[in-house]
Amino acid sequence: MKLSAVFLIILGILVVLSAFKVVMIGLAQFFEVFFGIIFILWNISAWRERRRWPTIGMLLVGTLMVLDAFKIAGVELSAGQIFLIFIGACILDGGLAKLRGHRRVRGKEMNKLKYQEDSKVESLDLRVSGTLMKLKLDSDDKHLYDLKVDYSSTHFEPSHSFTVEDGRGVLLLSNTMRTRRTTHIVSAKWYLRVNSGVPMNVHMDVDISSLHLNMRDLKAEDIIIKGDLSKIVLVPSELVDSTILIEADVSIIKLLIPKNVGIMLKYHGDLSWRTFYDLEYKDGVYVSQNYSTAFATAEIYIRSDLARITFQWI
Predict the structure, then answer these.
(1) Cβ(112)–Cβ(148) under 8 Å?
(2) 194 within 8 A of 119, measured Cβ to Cβ
């Protein structure tokens, strides 16, 4: 049985009994008990939902209001004293929140994770899976990779692992939802920077996510992206030839192509809005004029229905 239901039942019984003068409870006592127990139950709920830091100030205010209502333990406070205690509790909770260094989004605590890896590998496999994640991929010159995650522990359980097999590094990233029920849409934010000197392959399988993949200065050769109901912004490598497969229905796909990269693009799907300006269509594929002379090329294969696909030179 929920604590809030128990509270309402008890409060209702007290009000009914006070009408028959079985229990003497005045209007002031009623409000003290009502709001005092609300403050207490809110903090108990915060603890049960795994929020790490219930508001200690509000818990103190609620306890004092209940004690004052029934004059328990010699507690007897005036309305002015209760108001001052409430103001002090708000200041106390604000100070504790800043001291803990947590950010809040719509009342939910945001936690941070940071990882860095400096192992020497011949190549790297990046594998990403999850739901409701915002991932930004870019290049780095200092570490093999540098990863930062901002997430709500109430909604998500991010995981990260790295292994090395025969000189090949394998980086696994996963964004798992703790609960399927939420009052509003939230996302875990992932920031990943990978060393630009290491050849890499990428495989992503995500849903309802936002991917900003800047591989311009990465040696990303084979890329597979599956992302339904997602937004995908992709910049292919200008260092190596790459093959890119995107399977994403009901999604927004934006291709940003460096001018020194040659493009061959093959699209399969129906009912999509697409713009492939400055590309020549021949034999079922779109080809850029610089494809045969460019230093690096990107072969892009897109399978998508009900998607918006745009192409832009940068």
Answers:
(1) yes
(2) no
DSSP state of 196: T
CA 211 vs CA 2, 12, 188: distances in Å: 40, 52, 12
17-41 burial, b at 16+ Cβ within 10 Å, e below that, comes to eeeeeeeebeeebeebbebbbebbb
Q: What is d(CA 281, CA 93) in angstroms, rounded to the nearest whole number?
A: 63
Structure tokens that stand for 61 in this block: 């205010």
> For residue 223, is it left (φ>0), alpha (ψ between -120 and 50) or beta?
beta
pLDDT digits (tens, 9 = 90+) for 67-115: 877 777 777 777 778 788 888 888 887 777 666 554 444 445 568 889 9
What are the backbone angles phi and psi of residue 63, rounded to the nearest 5°?
-60, -45
C-beta of residue 227 within 8 angstroms of C-beta of residue 202? no
Would you tell me how many other CB atoms lie within 10 Å of the CB of residue 193? Answer: 21
The reported pLDDT for the residue numbered 28 is: 67
pTM, whole model, 2 decimals?
0.65
Instruction: Specify the 3-state DSSP secondary structure of 62.
Output: helix
Distances, alpha carbon 51 to alpha carbons 5, 105, 106, 153, in Å: 21, 13, 13, 8
Q: Quick: pLDDT tens for 21-48.
A: 655 566 667 677 777 777 777 777 666 5
Residue ranges with strand state E in the chain:
103-105, 108-117, 123-131, 133-140, 145-152, 156-165, 168-177, 188-195, 199-207, 210-214, 219-228, 231-235, 242-247, 252-257, 261-268, 273-275, 280-282, 285-287, 296-303, 308-313
